[in-house]
Design goal:
Strand content: 25-35%
Distance between the termini: 34 Å
Largest sheet: 5 strands, mixed, barrel
Number of strands: 10
Order of helices and strands: EHEEEHEEEHEHEHEH
Radius of gyration: 17 Å
Helix content: 25-40%
């Protein structure tokens, strides 16, 4: 029997993956998501990519952590897509940039400001970073069904985690700060580090993706702890959305 190809970073093979996948950033979040699946079990871990597998609506579903930022997110996406996964939901966290978004809110980005570099390797800057409409609709409906306070809109995806703060004083501050303020004035509700890469890279690979996050901060307030008590909200929204996507796919 011919040995299956193992992907370089996730160490996954075609027989191990599925059509559907959740992409949390943190490896520690993977097992917490797995508790919502049927017959969930640990599969593999390599570098920042930890993978568990389970079932929803009778379909195998993967959970693979991406790690922080665009480059490792793109690697996980590319390797899973090459093996046959075509539907992705990022489950993560974000920080508020608007009084419309508060700590504990469920945040569903319709689009992202491309304040990062990885997506440039998949599409020119003029191409917008937007969620797949089917995945976005499923997430929005799931949040409504679960009655969680939800913020929907544009988020800022960036590479510099600390560059959002007023005290940012690196040599590039003259360039970053005005842009940051412009994005907020245009209505950006939150900021994070992976969604723009996910959306643009997904478009280039002809797969569908969306994202749901828990807001970790209040606007203009420094919250230095991760809101673990609220994390279940975005996980539950993602699980319900994936259930609906699976059901709709079965009708086709």
């Amino acid at each position: 029997m011919k040995k299956e190809k193992m992907m370089l970073h996730t160490n996954l093979t075609k027989s191990e993956v599925s059509k559907y996948a959740f992409l949390p950033g943190s490896p520690q979040r993977v097992e917490r998501i797995a508790k919502y699946l049927e017959d969930a079990k640990f599969l593999k871990v390599n570098r920042e990519h930890e993978t568990w597998v389970g079932y929803l609506e009778g379909e195998k579903v993967l959970i693979t952590s991406t790690g922080m930022g665009g480059p490792s997110t793109a690697i996980a996406l590319e390797e899973l897509a090459e093996l046959g996964t075509d539907t992705f939901i990022r489950i993560g966290s974000c920080a508020s940039t608007s009084d419309k978004c508060s700590r504990g809110d469920v945040v569903i980005p319709a689009a992202c400001v491309r304040m990062e570099g990885t997506a440039l390797h998949y599409g020119p800057i003029e191409y917008p970073a937007v969620a797949d409409v089917e995945v976005f609709d499923a997430l929005r409906k799931a949040a409504n069904t679960l009655s969680y306070k939800t913020a929907i809109g544009t988020v800022i995806s960036r590479d510099g985690f600390y560059s959002q703060y007023d005290e940012f004083d690196k040599p590039s501050a003259y360039y970053i700060k005005p842009k940051w303020e412009a994005y907020k004035k245009l209505g950006a509700i939150a900021t994070e580090m992976e969604a723009a890469t996910l959306f643009v890279a997904s478009a280039s690979l002809n797969v569908r993706s969306g994202a749901v996050m828990v807001c970790a901060t209040d606007y203009k307030k420094v919250n230095k702890t991760y809101p673990i008590d609220y994390e279940a909200r975005c996980i539950e929204v993602a699980i319900e959305a994936m259930r609906q996507l699976i059901k709709e796919d079965k009708k086709r």
